[in-house]
Amino acid sequence: MKVAKDPIGVFDSGLGGLTIVKEIRRVLPQESIVYFGDLARLPYGIKSHKQIIQFSLQNTNFLLQHQIKTLIIACNSSSSAAYQVIKRKVSIPVIDVIEPATREAVKLTRTGRIGVIATQATVDTGAYEKKLTKLNPNLEVYSRSCPMFVPMVEEGWTEGSICEQIVKHYLEPIKQKKVDVLMLGCTHYPLLESLIRNFMGSKVRLVNSAQSTVEKLVESLNSQKLLAHPDQKPSFKVYVSDQPRNFIRVGEKFLGERLSYVKVVRHAE
Ligand code: DGL
Hints:
The protein is of the alpha/beta class. The protein folds into two domains: about 10-95 and about 210-265, Rossmann fold (3-Layer(aba) Sandwich); about 100-210, 3-Layer(aba) Sandwich (Rossmann fold). Helices cover about 45% and strands about 15% of the residues. It is built from eleven helices and ten strands. The protein has helices at about 20-25, 50-65, 75-90, 100-110, 120-125, 125-135, 150-155, 160-175, 195-200, 210-225, 245-255; strands spanning about 10, 35, 70-75, 95, 115-120, 140-145, 180-185, 205-210, 235-240, 260-265. A six-stranded parallel β-sheet has the order 4-3-1-2-9-10, with helices on both faces. A four-stranded parallel β-sheet has the order 6-5-7-8, sandwiched between helices. Helix 1 (about 20-25) crosses helix 10, helix 2 (about 50-65) packs across helix 3 (about 75-90) and helix 8 (about 160-175) packs across helix 9. Bound molecules: D-glutamic acid. D-glutamic acid (DGL) binds next to helix 3.
């Protein structure tokens, strides 16, 4: 049986899922977290669905061994390919990063023109279009994959003229569509938020899945009476499947806290 002091499990292919962790730590600082970053097999966003499903199930099994009370799939490529499969297999609540963000985007748009940027794997599933147009069939959705964004983030390249040019290259066609909401459909992209904001201009609202995903997490924990006690001393454990070279440097800078527990484990099998 799950109890309130159990940790929340979060996985991503790399460090992008820390965007969700940062929001959990802001909103629910008393919660313990176990994070798995599949550095050895990053990037997921260019892999087949079959492969992403297999990796995602292995990551899930690894986290289940840590007695997690809820699982967050903090990877859009995994959320789009594997959410349903994972949900069917596990008995704890599973939260993806796509559904909560689409609700927020639909609330924010005034013109009905929404841009989505994501990995190729996520774009290929059409997961965002399907969810968005289910909520409002009149929406016009323009999607684009931005394959260079993930390596940029993993390297810690989040500013400077080279990055600005890459952002312009990918986002120009979306900007021309005059979208008023742009969804950052990849957990790595919020680390590029200021570059993206500068290019798109202040009139375009950026939707990053962290806030809406964590709102859903709060609802879910609350409804099951599984919110950790406010006095709980939380733990934050990070496991990665290969050397965390840039992970620690970039992750600490982004989170604004030291990553004191980072362990390399074999692939979650
Ligand atoms: N975490 C992945 C996602 O959100 C991006 C990185 C990757 O391609 O593995 O889609």
